[in-house]
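User: Before I run my own analysis I want an independent prediction to cross-check against. Here's the chain; please return only the structure tokens and, at the end, one sentence I can use as a sanity check.
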Amino acid sequence: MVTRAQLPRVVVVGRPNVGKSTFFNRVVPKGDAVVDDQPGVTRDRREGIASWTNVSFMVIDTGGLVPGTRDVMEAKIMEQGQEALEHADLILMFVDSREGITAIDESIANALRPISEKVLLVANKAESEEQAIASLEMASLGFGNPIPISAQHSDGVGDLLDALVERLPKQVEAGEETDLIRIALLGRPNVGKSSIANRLLGESRFIVHDAPGTTRDAVDAHFRYDGNDFVLVDTAGLRRRSHVTEEIEYYSTVRTRRSLSNCDVALLVLDPTQEIAAQDLHIAGEITKHGKSMIFVMNKWDLISKFTGTAEAYTKMLRHKFPLLKGSPVLYVSALSGQRITKIPDLVRELWLQRQKRVPTGVLNDLLKAATDRVHPPLKSGAKPLKLYYVTQTGNRPPQFTVFVNDPKSAAASYQKYLKNYFQDALELKATPMRMDFRARR
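Assistant: Structure tokens:
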């Protein structure tokens, strides 16, 4: 099977608000780059696999390019776009057929001219035949006649994909990816999630800036480490819905929750120079609710004055603040220096393997007998004596076990908790949110 790294790379570029993300969402299954009328919504590069006529290729959506800008954020977006272009097999330069050629379009075209053989010119927002004809004047940019499309309404997108596939350096049959370990980076804005992501990937894929909320999209990025394939999602800062005031931020939050729903392991990134806030506790609650394995990542550890027992004191504090996650491991890292960053994928893989765990029914029932011999079920007021018949595994990711009893109402909450803790310890699943249900035997 063809790996993701072997797929041809198609990079979509253009000035802000010409419809690049709309096109991305049109051609990439479940594409979810933020789309909004406000220029500059897409900031980081976003990748997704598209397929046309049984040919697969990677689509890279970039932020709007503004050559020569003095704006710090726009300059960083330019850096991201230029880095994507260095690895491109084909470049789609988007222009707006309604507005015609602008000075920024001409600046982008000048920058692309040395690699013009890789460029396809796309005139987006050509919703009428008149607009499609008028867009022909954009051939003056030097990349041949533009291909008129409407990404919003899908008009002409098939013709563009036909031309795109013809220009690809090699054609690759479509295939599915398996055994990917999915990681979600979560945390308050400005705790260093993007810096950690860049360290893990070994390149500056995500924009790093002091302004909180720099990352608006949840951006997938793949990397390989020690023989394993990982999907890293650098998420926008997660906030309570009542605190989300901008429409863009609302959609970023929705996609953050979707990323959390789809991941295997969540990294809760914290800044040890700041107090634990209600927002951190809220994010931890979301992770617990979704049944995800979690690692506390204490970033900026290089800024902390250390004495004997400093890390142990912080760990004790975390166990106290996050009692439902007291089995989650803690890593003390510095994205700035790279300290202990390579420990992250090793630990993620360890938790991922725990989530896949399958335990034979015989082993589980031996554990059930040992647990009940050690502590007999208490008699619950107003209920018949609890009888436990057998236990079996009914799911994984995370592991889920069902205990069959005479009457679930007879199982006291304290005894259910005892059995769950006993199984977690015995099966070495302390860092995995194991689930245990009690069901009446029929």
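Sanity check: The two ends are 45 Å apart (CA to CA).
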